[in-house]
Queue: 2 jobs
Job 1
Amino acid sequence: MNGAHALLRTLVANGVDTCFTNPGTSEMHFVAALDDVPEMRAVLTLFEGVATGAADGYGRMAGRPAATLLHLGPGLGNGLANLHNARRARTPIVNIIGDHAVAHQPLDAPLQSDIESVARNVSQWIRSSNAPADVARDALDAIAAARAGGVATLILPADASWSEGAQTVPAGSIAVRTAPVPAEALDLAAKALQSGEPAALLLGGVLDEATLVAAARVAAATGAKVLCETFPARLERGAGLPAVERLGYLAEFAVAQMDGLRHLVLVGARAPVSFFAYPGKPSELVPDGCDVIDVGPGRIAALAKSVHADAEPARASAARPDRPTGALTAQSLAAAIGALLPEGAIVSDEANTAGLFVAGATAGAPPHDWLTLTGGAIGQGMPVATGAAVACPDRKVLSLEADGSAMYTLQSLWTQAREGLDVTTIIFNNRSYAILNLELSRVGARTDGHAAELFDLSRPPLDFVALARGMGVDAERAETADDVVRALERCLAEPGPHLIDAILPPGL
Amino acid sequence: MNGAHALLRTLVANGVDTCFTNPGTSEMHFVAALDDVPEMRAVLTLFEGVATGAADGYGRMAGRPAATLLHLGPGLGNGLANLHNARRARTPIVNIIGDHAVAHQPLDAPLQSDIESVARNVSQWIRSSNAPADVARDALDAIAAARAGGVATLILPADASWSEGAQTVPAGSIAVRTAPVPAEALDLAAKALQSGEPAALLLGGVLDEATLVAAARVAAATGAKVLCETFPARLERGAGLPAVERLGYLAEFAVAQMDGLRHLVLVGARAPVSFFAYPGKPSELVPDGCDVIDVGPGRIAALAKSVHADAEPARASAARPDRPTGALTAQSLAAAIGALLPEGAIVSDEANTAGLFVAGATAGAPPHDWLTLTGGAIGQGMPVATGAAVACPDRKVLSLEADGSAMYTLQSLWTQAREGLDVTTIIFNNRSYAILNLELSRVGARTDGHAAELFDLSRPPLDFVALARGMGVDAERAETADDVVRALERCLAEPGPHLIDAILPPGL
């Protein structure tokens, strides 16, 4: 058995049965081996940033890793921004990078580069599998490392892939290391929450119903506030689920949300800092005099138990906005989504500035999942929607995309068409990198000049209907709230990928 | 003066007056400072891979560096593949990456990453400019390093940009280090070429008329053969210029070209190795018994002098194919380009497999420049064409693009439209990653399976006319040779960007 076969068989035997890829010559034996391992679904993307973002979306929804298959250092580079986002989401991914044959590497052929030093940035585990006899064991270690919560990068030289001498290892031999429960931190947290002083939980990562219910019970039992990260990897929300307040993106909002706190208990989140530094403003957002206690991810049930939190938590009521009519604005677009969001939908949210009102408008919609831009590197939403749709073929996926961000990884649409994925993309088209108009004044730079021309996407305007059709995706343009309602109803009723180019007031 | 102003003034005072960018919050002060330094032309791109590739194309044509301005580690990641290509081309680029403020970096904010370790891969020089007082001197050093031939990466923390205390340094204070002429290697090379034994020159880098004439004179004086790298950064060619034989991409062709050589003299090129390793085949292509003498880049005139090469060299005759008619094939498409290529055109060639016949069909066309895929990382051709058009506004640019490669950095079209660049793109649309069909058998993998489905771009077909129009670029589809001739004549006659979607037989 050659290394490529051993790798594929090890992956599928251990629950990794989807691979997002754009392969090249050094990956040909992996590609050829797919014929003998039909359990592996290989999904072709037109750009590696789509592959890595799709693996992120898949991992967030499936709760287990997908693989990528990237071509050498440049393929990794193209996928790097979305691996950065995945690292921030702690999404399990087995990130496979083909390399030159071991003997070829010192020759500095044109595509040679230092893959490891680039991959280290985004990987919590990294290894080159240089001999076919090692491939299966290395793959198992990679899967275990990914399952522990993060990107595990396995570099596969072409000759390790094509050479005989590999074998599989028994399934079920994976030991996922989980850190021990930090008893002392749990005690400290429980005491802080029960102290009667102002306290809050800050949740991060995948926030499913069980986590939210446990957190809400802690709140009911102790009076603590429940917050979650600005950009959680996944948030279950909607009618019947406990609502959780997301920390604001703008530092001044986050500061207001934490004002007066004496205790902040982190559960899978990090102590909040501002996204960017601003002249003369603090970057650390935890209020003075507030202690921070980190109990680690996955500890909310233990925490609920230690504070005897067994009361029934408050849950969000069902409530939808009316279908909007009239002008298309950020508010009416949000209302249309709130009015129509189907039960069980998965929302990939990269609507950015123009999407400000969507969270509020959907808070009482039927239960759904919300996926966010975890690492701040734009171009993540459409790939994440693609991967989520592969992971959950029976659910509707709604991809909310800012126009500027959409143009980073628009090739996602082609993969959605090729795979027949049930994704409806709404472009929040304000012909602007609107967030930068805001940031220009926030950093104290002069705003009376021509700088904003570099944030202007109106010359020429982007026609997303043409762009989507060019990649085989059904698309229409919406210029009024009525247009959006009608288009969204149609798209949600017809399986397969669609795009709505929602024309908002400029520069919003 | 703040650091951003000092940086901009230092750049423009030293001949760096074009910046390809997609900025973010950490670059806002640089953007704001552009108002006070109108000599700097800032060119907005929709994706950093376009910015870095455009800087490459600009540098190859202008012979001096452009700047980039990228947003943190993810922006660098998005631009990494084309910086890899630029490194292989030894193109001068001042690669500026905005970073978080120095005090913000240890807080591990969402966009924090290790920029230096990623940049090291593609940079021959790298420095963080952490204090405003250092920015101008660091910028000068970066320009000097870039001019010596390569990517110089300057990391600019936001607070170095916004803080006062910077000053400019006098213009003209740049010392570009060039290596001393290696007298011994030159002597060895001259003796080898004059030995009467089979010998060849292998040229690399920017091959302008002076270089080619000197090399052809050496050939005439010594009987040596003149070869150039498979992918030179820039090659002047056409009627009236000395022709030079490019080393074949396929190793077996390159081996045949060097068969029997006893001496190989490298002038700005590296000893040839195969692009990829293949099972059981050698990666090093220099024949056994052939010595390799490296005289370094820029040494061809010295070499010509030392072998007393003053004969008039052979030059290519003027010859064009007839305008083709009938079916559109790789041959007839090449003939159309050969028949119509205007004098002084710049050709950015990423046509890959389907472009096989274009070099032959244009060998006797009026003089023109040829830019190639220097590092093998696809997605380079359209950005390079964009940057070349910015550098040379009075010349026609022809961008020859394979369909698969085009989809990597298609956002280039929008920048071409925004800037009104005179670029005509021809998509060699064979609905396939055709090179991989070839490579699958060359690596000895099974070819009787379904692997080729992963190289198939026909489901759904890409409509490049719709895609181009979606970004504001005039476009038409060509299905016959007559269509291509008519379309290309029209596009070359009308200034501004155009695209021709040339439909070739599938999988060619």
Job 2
Amino acid sequence: MSSRTVHSSNDQETEAKEMDNNGQGERYIHKVSVPPKQKLFKEFTMTVKETFFADDPLRPFKDQSKSRKVVLGVQAIFPILEWSRNYSFKKFRGDIIAGLTIASLCIPQDIGYAKLANLPPQYGLYSSFVPPLIYAIMGSSRDIAIGPVAVVSLLLGTLLQNEIDHTTHPAEYLRLAFTATFFAGITQATLGILRLGFLIDFLSHAAVVGFMGGAAITIALQQLKGFFGIKDFTKKTDIISVMHSVFGSVHHGWNWQTIVIGASFLAFLLVAKYIGKKNKKLFWMPAIAPLISVILSTFLVYITRADEKGVAIVKHLEKGINPSSVNQIYFSGEYLGKGFKIGIVAGMIALTEAIAIGRTFASMKDYTLDGNKEMVALGAMNVVGSMTSCYVATGSFSRSAVNYMAGCNTAVSNIVMSGVVFLTLEFITPLFKYTPNAILSAIIINAVINLIDVQAAILIWKIDKFDFVACMGAFFGVVFSSVEIGLLIAVSISFAKILLQVTRPRTALLGKIPRTTVYRNIQQYPDATKVPGVLIVRVDSAIYFSNSNYVKERILRWLTDEEERIMAADLPAIHYLIVEMSPVTDIDTSGIHALEELYRSLQKREVQLILANPGPVVIDKLHEAKFETLIGDDKIFLTVADAVAACSPKLVEEV
Amino acid sequence: MSSRTVHSSNDQETEAKEMDNNGQGERYIHKVSVPPKQKLFKEFTMTVKETFFADDPLRPFKDQSKSRKVVLGVQAIFPILEWSRNYSFKKFRGDIIAGLTIASLCIPQDIGYAKLANLPPQYGLYSSFVPPLIYAIMGSSRDIAIGPVAVVSLLLGTLLQNEIDHTTHPAEYLRLAFTATFFAGITQATLGILRLGFLIDFLSHAAVVGFMGGAAITIALQQLKGFFGIKDFTKKTDIISVMHSVFGSVHHGWNWQTIVIGASFLAFLLVAKYIGKKNKKLFWMPAIAPLISVILSTFLVYITRADEKGVAIVKHLEKGINPSSVNQIYFSGEYLGKGFKIGIVAGMIALTEAIAIGRTFASMKDYTLDGNKEMVALGAMNVVGSMTSCYVATGSFSRSAVNYMAGCNTAVSNIVMSGVVFLTLEFITPLFKYTPNAILSAIIINAVINLIDVQAAILIWKIDKFDFVACMGAFFGVVFSSVEIGLLIAVSISFAKILLQVTRPRTALLGKIPRTTVYRNIQQYPDATKVPGVLIVRVDSAIYFSNSNYVKERILRWLTDEEERIMAADLPAIHYLIVEMSPVTDIDTSGIHALEELYRSLQKREVQLILANPGPVVIDKLHEAKFETLIGDDKIFLTVADAVAACSPKLVEEV
């Protein structure tokens, strides 16, 4: 470690300076420290830990006996072993109410969502039976409600239909759905095990808001088929094709009985939702309204035999619980690869939704959620699901909210829900025969409306225009083209934003805030004054290969601009350029090259380069590269104020 | 603009504080300003300008008359019109010497490089005739020497050979080469015109060092064929296949006359290089040594008729200048797409090399180079080249260095070189008939050794271990697999580094440096002291969707760790958490959500969240999102010192 003597700012700055000038006192000196050198291996393990184990998952294992470690390890995989020991009747009361409420909500939704995925209706119910049980054992969120969800169902339906037509080859379509579900689970579990959970953070909030909104509109549009009782309906999902289908069949395709049933129950659902929103205590009204609609409308159709007048009904719903589907998964052949690809996409989207829900409720109840552990739980649940005739299940926004409001305490509410679905499958399914499709459409429309978050979009617009572009890009991509295109747009814009941030970091000119020794951005603080003869530039990012040239050239441009202004105003010429390095958290070889080039360019212009407050990593690397020897040991200061004091001593006294 | 009253640190901190405590004086107050609101359109144009026009290319056009603007526009496209007006005889003297020197170096290299690209030798010379002329008219670097280069030749040879075998289908191979060259030029020019030049910054310096080193070794290995006079040689480029070829033919394939000629002239070249390195004045020795070797060895073979004893010779070199190849480019058919793909890759690599060279010499002579303009020049030169039987040309590292040392002043040296190549093609080519291939191999080996930059690799190791992994990944990828794989590894690791930087930003605990009001990283400044009851955390990056969750959880982990330490040591509990936001240059909706969640979590723990020095963009967005209303107007301070003073007033007086 070299010893550099560098001046430091302190409270007695002014006095100290004066004493210094008079040669009477000694000025207090503080060095820019090079941090204690760390061993390579330690540095490496630290980086790996920060990247993959940022949440410090092994903390509870520290200082424990061996047998205790095994117990803790099993508990880590199956959190139910941990929380079930403190389970009480009081908690159970909350869980059973919540479980019954979400069961009443999920049954009609499941049947509808299965249709979105182009699957027979019972597969929706299957997916609400097994996966919630697995999740209850392995998951750590207390509020999430597991089952099929609208967006994933739509996505899966679109992607699968691109490969196999479900009307002509229903058996192969089903097999491919299980294959995709299997690989969705594998993808989710792998991400969790490899601790790559942070990859889902790359889909930005804004992109998700746009994508969800677009998907909601697309789903609602798809429901117009059932709602108007149209028979010839397009297989495309974009708004133009759908509108063409709808209005092309006005005269011969609409069925007025269907429309009457659908519209009146949709109105009922919306009123229930409105009441639930106005009075939080009546939250159960919107939650059970769908089931009431189903019962009422089924009864109505049964007694009026409206199905003979053209009202489409569910007709057939297989009785009994999930059959095994282990043999149905494609483990070879051309569909293996296709299922794999679809699984990755569907698995990632399902994960994004589940983790977002989990985090939201965890932060509301202030418990922490281990994202990677959650992924393993969700993955395991879908792998098991794929072998028991389920398609991709995940956390549902609407049902989780109801679960939370109904007072759930643990994942037991999912077990209760699963039990109700079991009873439904075993005993009640035949009763759904007369349920009109229009009701299912109304229920889905009512559910997905919540996904259109206009408030969030407005906030995004206010806060970050670039985010808004990502949001709208995803939205219009889904609505006007297809779910995949929307998703692609969302991911691309999210990445473009990251790259832009890394390539074009901000820089700012600093000025002195009156009556302080604080130097701040003169754009933010218009009363901050520039120091004559000195240009102070702050670089607001790590200097890496991706931006090193830009940073160098931008600093030189600040200088050129300022010199032009000075020439025009006849002010003292600039002799010092202080680069405030506080925000420069890291630098690489390209960055050091850029600084060297900057130094040489400045030398030619007779301007002295000075650095203020390089951080530990930066000073260490500058030291290794012998940059401080190049510019001079005494050209690195702890604060901008110190650097200014060294360049232009008179100025500090002025204060 | 809301008005927030926030306390500021100043020189008279101590005194002011005391006065404040006595109720006698008024403490000086400075707000954290919200910057003046900018109009949306202005903000948008500013962002676009910073992203695509960071170099302010239209600056000279400002405040000029219309006719002057036209003149300046033409000059911008053809810089020769500008610099030729100040051209003098003195400059010409430097240029002619430099031009003759690089010509003598380029002629033998060109013939060898054409063989690397699996093309007949004259195509190397063609590529040193037309492209340098075009570049001289349109380019703005004064030192770059244009022509075929080793790495691009090897890359092109590998990629083209993957599509068409050059031994069985030489005509189609040649046509695909021109097609690739055409699209390489189009790619380069397009990047320049769309001002996407920053894309090449994404290939990090470290990755380029590794890639170049690996390519140099691969090229040297390829030369063993000519050097040992082996006839059956593998077409693969990895070290294992090549070594297998070399040692598999020890007993029947090596030709001792070839080895003697090759080895002795390689020794001569290396000695010349060593002398040139020791004595900078003798730079011309290594520069003309290759030509001397060619002349001597050709003469030797001619008089000894060594070619009849198995020494392989050039045999045939077409006489005359470049024929047109406009009709040869594939503008349709399956090879259009393949040529397009190869062209993009080769064009990007060629660009990376040319821009790196241009920038290096521009910074040495202190003139600026417009990267985007350069790309247009290089692109135009390759498009014209593809129509005149040239393959991809770019700036050569070795020849540019010779050009610089020989005292070139402008691109006229390229014109001189081009003239010499013209004369060679017209009159001298038949004389190369007896040039032994071993000499060309020796010249190439001698040239590419310079590309192995061990010093740079060592420096990279010292400065940044992650960069070193990228460097070695690219190196071993090229050496043990292939050029494409090495390139893929280089690009992937470069991107991974960017993503890692964005996902896992650094955070640091701050402490007070004794006898100052400066707060710095306690790891870097071990004598900095923590403030009792207060935890100060600095976040070292913009808070975006990609890292917002990590940042939130990392801050909470700092708090948990600290609380554990405090419990153990029986110190006062933490009541305030100050987040130093100086390095947080931007925040998006996800980031604000994370801060809100952080605030809620802290509230549950009875810890007060306080922000210090949010930047202009951040304070603006916090304001829009009403975050300041959430945490309280008086919880945002200009400096950490002010924030500490507010939380724990006694501490400041202690100084």
